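ping. complex inputs:
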Amino acid sequence: MKLKIKTFGITRDILGGRLVEIEISQPTVSLLRSELTRRYPDLENLNSLFVAVNNKYADESEELSSTDEIALIPPVSGG
Amino acid sequence: MKLKIKTFGITRDILGGRLVEIEISQPTVSLLRSELTRRYPDLENLNSLFVAVNNKYADESEELSSTDEIALIPPVSGG
Amino acid sequence: MIKITEKPIDVQKVIDTASSLNAGAVNVFIGTVRSKAHGKNVVWLEYESYESMTVAEIRKIIDEASHRWPLLGWAVSHRIGTLKPGEVSVVVAVSSPHRKESFEACQYIIDEVKTKAQIWKKKYLKTGRNGFQQAHK
Amino acid sequence: MIKITEKPIDVQKVIDTASSLNAGAVNVFIGTVRSKAHGKNVVWLEYESYESMTVAEIRKIIDEASHRWPLLGWAVSHRIGTLKPGEVSVVVAVSSPHRKESFEACQYIIDEVKTKAQIWKKKYLKTGRNGFQQAHK
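pong. complex structure:
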């Protein structure tokens, strides 16, 4: 299944784009995370990395579909 | 000696004017205070009453002259 | 800038005066005239100041604040004269490198100004249909 | 009002939005871009936001603050896009009956916005004569 991943902050630099496509079969948040860190090991250096699905922070077990709005949320630095 | 007393806040209502003249011989802050409370007993109801001489809070023993700028400072309420 | 003024306070100007290019934080306190006091409607307030003493007193307060916190800019403006509900009576603005100290310094300054500056307010309250009452607090 | 905007923030407008006739106090926090960071000159900053999440997150922060303190008005505005040193990045304003709670609520809100809102800054720092460096903090 093809997932579209929105990137923000430093994850955009690491993944190299605003919207990155990843192919995973029967994807969950946990599987997505494994696949991303395999391809982009620099993600492991972050103090935290949340995955948001449809504008909510997702649990690791949450199943993903190709119509979900998926986003990577690295440590925030507003203000 | 004739002293001119500036009034502020509630002391203006009690003394009935912005600038009140008081005659005292060999005046000190302490004597002025006694004379004022004798004439205007309502002053005793104030939580505090400072006497300022030439823009500084004065000690009770300070001597006063007719050229001093003397002011009554009741509890403040700015802000 | 320490200003005692009969004219409406320009809040943005007070903020601009306190700002600094090296600051990351500006904290601003704005005191406004409440429409109610002692359970009654406020018709208007009158503020007066013993200006020479007030300016010296506020300067002392600012000196103490500058000693305690790394202030990069500051400004205090207090209105006097007749004010209606909703109008701004006082503005304190400070800038500092980081936000925590801007909050602490601004709160210190307004607390001290309220308890030490030689400024007095007189409230004119509405009591019943045609009645008025004055209050010195 | 919660606003995420590419345009310069009108501080006075944020204050007006947060003001209330029943309030005696308005506290305002203004975050500004510092000219120095990590010991280097800041050339510019870029802020971006995941706007849908950011607005919902700030709304939760405001709800919690309204629960803890008697707020009469509030407004939060955060700038995104390219900012130069001295420019305003964020404004938080709250009004309340008395001053203490206005300081506490405003500080709570900006602390929470900084640690929770989905906003990211990227600093462009000058290193040497022609060098640049990017920093994500």
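Residues 2-128 of chain C form a domain with the Aldehyde Oxidoreductase; domain 3 fold (CATH 3.90.1170.40).
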